Amino acid sequence: MTFNLLIRLLTVALAAVLGLGAPALHAQQNLFAPRLIINDKVISEYEINQRVLFLQLLRAPGNPQDEALDGLIEDRLRADAAKEMDISATEEQIAAGMGEFASRANLSTEEFLKAIAAGGVEPQTFRDFVRAGLVWRDVVRARFAPRVQITDVQVDRAIAGMTRASAVRVLLSEIIIPAEPGNEAQAMALATRIQAEVSSDAGFAAAARQYSASGSAASGGKIEWLPLANLPPAIAPFVLALAPGEVSDPVAIPNAVAIFQLRAVEETEATAPTSVEVEYAQFFLPDDDRAAAAFAKVRAEVDTCDDLYTVAKGLPETQLQRDTQAMGAVPQDIALQLARLDEGESSTALVFGGNRVFLMLCARRPQMETPPSREEVRQQLFNQRLAAMADGYLADLRANAIIREP
After folding, report:
1. Which structural domains are found in the chain, ordered by start?
2. How far apart are alpha carbons 15 and 115 in whole angstroms?
3. What percent of the chain is modeled with pLDDT above 90?
């Protein structure tokens, strides 16, 4: 679970925190007993339980136990990397980081601490989480920033895509490699190997059939024509920078790693928005032997997102979720599915925490905005490239770490 993803969840999740009781926590014989040792750093049962509570309050996707343990392992690796480079966070930086995080939910630090305390989360848990993010940011900048060069040609391409997004459409193939908690390094390594070895459409198609978990795997990963504006903003620049036949750098998305091959690009004369807002619904049902029949029944009964309220009548409110967000704020795994849907169409490709999702696009609305400056675009591309390098570095650290039980 990344720092940025948790920030995106804050505004929605913390609105209800003060009205919630503390989530149930199973008693442990010794909360401070070590659970794992990462190199020479201990992760205790207490830390895991605290992180679980924190993620539950933020309503983060995935299994809270798995996500908590995975996040704490990565925090230890980040701390080791920072120590090796003699990087630390001052008290002032930590306080500012806590304040900035809380402000995303329109709360002060004190209000945020009160909100999480109502759910059983200690201030130190929040503090440790913020510190890990701060030192990792400085590690990544110190290690990789001098190596990232954004050319004027890349800026020009990105601006063209931003200012004429709907006038550009792309023909892509995809490989989505599952990355369950604990297996991120292997997934990233496999994606990197595929990118390095694939040099043809046929090679990419064969790799998609062998490794991809996407529904497009059977067709060699091929996706129909997509407007560039439909793609998540974090992925579109990677695609736009490709020449036909080229394969993108691996992109980390929730619980997976994605790589794309550009098969063709086409421009039209349509007037272009600079961004897109999507309204979408998620209806959750158990991912069991009856799922296929259950979703077929749902598909037969709904034509619009409003119809889902009839299907969900009498079920827990959490089983049906409807959101309206800028495409850049939508989690990338969801955004990639929405990108290929028209209004009223649905997908059942995603599984969260044992539930399969009936994902329906309610509406896609173009948003006209003032185009960003060249320097703003350059900074966006810089940050995207830096994030990709950071993901690869963290995967390497994990692959080389000694992770054992006490």
Report:
1. 3-145 (1.10.4030.10), 152-272+370-398 (3.10.50.40), 275-367 (3.10.50.40)
2. 9
3. 50
